[in-house]
């Protein structure tokens, strides 16, 4: 078959194609790897050089015409509902195109903060915020920690380098600084919680990090007593960890509360064991602190507490090492 005959035969067949199967048969016959155009092209290679050029040009034109005719027929048949199988195979597995996209979620520490602030919200607390870069007045002085107090040792705090004589700034070592910021702005009654990061140059181990999160609580009003504090901590622990946990106070010392306590929660484990775990510090707001912010300690009393968020998240989810929370290994994080 010469090239003109080939083109004419193809054109004729194209005009009669009525189904996708016929179109595919046409493609294989003319355009396929063992098709007629391939045979024509093989034949071309056998021709003497002077004929190659003229036949080559002609072959290209025919090839293009058949290719275009094929594409047109394909478009025509694809648009015709009778030629396309429109039935849906409901047993076919879903497309996996999105398999590499993982939806993100909040970090476990932030989930814990949200759960805790939600809970305290239900108990009538609102949320207050304070700066992470804090001055010594709010982090120490107003909290009854005078200049020579050992807690202010530069080895135990992250101070920010400043010119001599300039106000000293530091990365806050406790969210208790927010107690002062709130009392400066707001008159009692006060009932706030304040979550946020704190920084201490502690040696890192399974339960210590140099950056961690605390939630501070502060209640100041008339007639607030230690019973309110104890009830608040106990209700929080039972609501967060389960009705069967017990709480206890141990005498402790903080310069800004008097009396002060550390509070523990007793967890009951599946193997029958129970253990007391320290969750934070608390106490009755020291009258000196109230005076410092011009709140009358004869009229108002208050309580405060500070919780370690990482320790709470670890307890809640059975995480043994605080470092896992900061290594950002997705295999660990995606479990929560
Ligand atoms: C305080 O920081 C007091 N401001 C708490 C307070 C507030 C007392 C209000 C009274 C009234 P303490 O240093 O114990 O206290 O820290 C509180 C909690 O933070 C600890 O119980 C612990 O859960 C957590 N914590 C302390 N140091 C670290 C650390 N390096 N890494 C992780 N968590 C820590």
Unreliable stretches (pLDDT < 50, length at least 5) are none
Q: How much of the polypeptide forms β-strand, as a percent range? A: 15-25%
CATH architectural type of the largest domain? 2-Layer Sandwich
How is the biggest beta sheet arranged? 7 strands, mixed
State the CATH class of the largest domain.
Answer: Alpha Beta
* CATH topology (level 3) name of the largest domain: BirA Bifunctional Protein, domain 2
Count of structural domains = 2
Q: List the strand order in the largest sheet.
A: 1-5-6-10-9-8-7
The overall pLDDT average reads 92
Assign the CATH superfamily of the largest domain: Bira Bifunctional Protein, Domain 2
User: Structural class from helices and strands?
Assistant: alpha+beta
Number of strands: 10
């Amino acid at each position: 078959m010469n090239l003109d005959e080939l083109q004419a035969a193809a054109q004729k067949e194209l005009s009669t194609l009525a189904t996708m199967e016929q179109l595919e048969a046409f493609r294989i016959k003319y355009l396929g790897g063992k098709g007629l155009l391939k045979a024509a092209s093989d034949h071309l290679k056998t021709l003497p050089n002077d004929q190659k050029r003229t036949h080559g040009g002609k072959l290209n034109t025919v090839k293009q015409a058949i290719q275009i005719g094929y594409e047109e027929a394909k478009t025509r048949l694809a648009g015709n509902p009778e030629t396309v199988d429109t039935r849906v195979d409901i047993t076919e597995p879903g497309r996996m195109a999105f398999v590499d996209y993982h939806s993100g979620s909040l970090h476990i520490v932030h989930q814990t903060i949200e759960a805790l602030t939600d809970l305290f919200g239900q108990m009538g607390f609102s949320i207050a915020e304070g700066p992470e870069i804090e001055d010594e007045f709010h982090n120490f002085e107003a909290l009854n920690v005078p200049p020579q107090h050992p807690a202010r040792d530069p080895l135990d705090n992250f101070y920010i380098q400043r010119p001599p004589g300039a106000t000293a700034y530091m990365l806050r070592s406790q969210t208790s600084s927010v107690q002062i910021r709130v009392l400066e702005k707001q008159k009692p009654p006060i009932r706030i919680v304040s979550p946020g990061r704190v920084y201490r140059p502690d040696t890192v181990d399974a339960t210590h990090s140099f950056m961690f999160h605390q939630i501070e609580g502060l209640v100041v009003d008339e007639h607030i007593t230690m019973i309110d504090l104890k009830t608040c901590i106990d209700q929080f622990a039972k609501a967060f960890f389960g009705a069967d946990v017990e709480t206890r106070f141990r005498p402790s010392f903080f310069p800004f509360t008097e009396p002060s306590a550390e509070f523990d929660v007793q967890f009951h484990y599946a193997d029958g064991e129970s253990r007391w775990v320290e969750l934070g510090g608390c106490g009755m707001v020291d009258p000196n602190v109230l005076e410092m912010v011009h709140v009358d300690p004869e009229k108002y009393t208050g309580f405060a507490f500070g919780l370690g968020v990482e320790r709470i998240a670890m307890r809640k989810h059975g995480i043994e090492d605080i470092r896992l929370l900061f290594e950002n290994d997705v295999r660990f994080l995606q479990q929560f």
